[in-house]
């Protein structure tokens, strides 16, 4: 029994709080986006209360036509807790939107450490090597799921490849 190379799973439909940033570096975009989301979670919302944190926090990356370079805009999101799915509180910050997403099927691989453009690009390449060529997965859009605080050494992350069909 060796290491699990990848896993496939389906995520349910639901409401997500999302913010898009286009900083010079990928790391800056996710950091600044997450800070805005934290303020929303911690009372800067129409409910006026702490909403509770869900994991993972997910960043959506779009690729340039070369297939190896990230587009500048990165969307960082978190799934609203169950208590707020029916009637999502609205953010005070106009950069944050509440989005209803349909269910998605992803092929995912876990990796540990930081999530820089370099490490994420390496993880995308590794998963493509494992999977081989297929038209069933999107090549211009990937997701990075982060499960732990950025200060945690060797934190748990995943790269998500999105299936075209459920």
TrEMBL record:
Gene3D superfamilies: Regulatory factor, effector binding domain
Transmembrane segments: none
One of the record's GO molecular function terms: heme binding
Pfam families xrefs: SOUL
InterPro entries linked to this entry: Reg_factor_effector_dom_sf, SOUL_heme-bd
Similarity annotation: Belongs to the HEBP family.
Protein name: Heme-binding protein soul4
Organism of this sequence: Seriola lalandi dorsalis
Classification of source organism: Eukaryota, Metazoa, Chordata, Craniata, Vertebrata
